[in-house]
Amino acid sequence: MTLFIFGGRSTALEVAELTRALHPGMRIVHVVGDEEAPVGAGGIRLSGLAEALGRLDGPARGIITMADQRLRLQKAAAMAHAGLEPLTLIHPEATVSPSAAVGPGCYIAAGARVSTQGQLAAHGMVNLNATIGHDCSAGAHLVVHPGAAISGNVLLGERVLVGANAFIGQGLEIGDDVQVDAMAQVTRDLPAGHLATSRALRVVPRLDLKT
Q1: Per residue in 84-113, is it b (16+ CB within 10 Å) or e — as a string?
Q2: What are phi and psi of 96, to 5 degrees?
Q3: Domain residue spans in the chain?
Q4: pLDDT classification of 211: cutoffs 50, 70, 90
Q5: Which of 9, 71, 145, 165 has the most CB within a 10 Å radius?
Q6: Could you count the other beta carbons within 10 Å of the beta carbon of residue 58?
């Protein structure tokens, strides 16, 4: 079996490490954009995916690891065009309720939690120590960064990105293509195509250091 990991840095490296631990015999190929340098001896650019698949003598799967939603959609289209089935990876130190449903191509990182009756559609990514509350439902390509907390009964649309240590309150509805910045606290419904951000950081000189 060969796993094509779409991405070459950051989460892609975590996914590769987890894959080696869970599937020791699986071959890993990083797929990066055509403008990037291939990662590792076996890495390829996206334009070389069809050729690489044609050389295989066994089954292959794929997983998307970048946070940029435009890139995620591009890679998902490339996977579908190539007939590459998605692989779901759940870290053994993650907690996924028996009543939860995790869609194809999802990555659930160490310390992450998907609570009772949580529903994740395809290609979701729940990063380190992030929490999906009970009865949440999320559309495809949900990206939740480390430490974020999504309360119970939240309805998340497609291509939602939740920044590190952000908070989304109970029972809210978050529209498609919403981005919640790191540290933001969301306490009301968010319409599709909007950005929720915290107050801008103010940086001033420390007068007490002057002599």
Answers
A1: bebbbbbbeebebeeebebbebbbbbebbb
A2: -120, 120
A3: 2-87, 88-195
A4: low
A5: 145
A6: 7
Give CATH superfamily name and number for 88-195.
Answer: Hexapeptide repeat proteins (2.160.10.10)
SS3 120: strand
SS3 169: coil
Task: Quickly name the fold that domain 2-87 has.
Answer: Rossmann fold (3.40.50)
- The tens digit of pLDDT for each residue in 183-199 reads 999 999 999 999 999 87
Using CA atoms, how far residue 66 sits from 73, 141, 169, 184, 211, in Å, is 10, 10, 26, 21, 48
Domains 2-87 and 88-195 share a fold: no
**Token output for 20:** 């080696």
List residues bridging with 119 in a β-sheet.
101, 137
Say if CB 125 and CB 142 are below 8 A apart: yes
What pLDDT, on a 0 to 100 scale, did the predictor assign at position 209?
A: 75
pLDDT (average), residues 72-86: 94
Rounded Cα gap, residues 38 and 48, in angstroms: 11
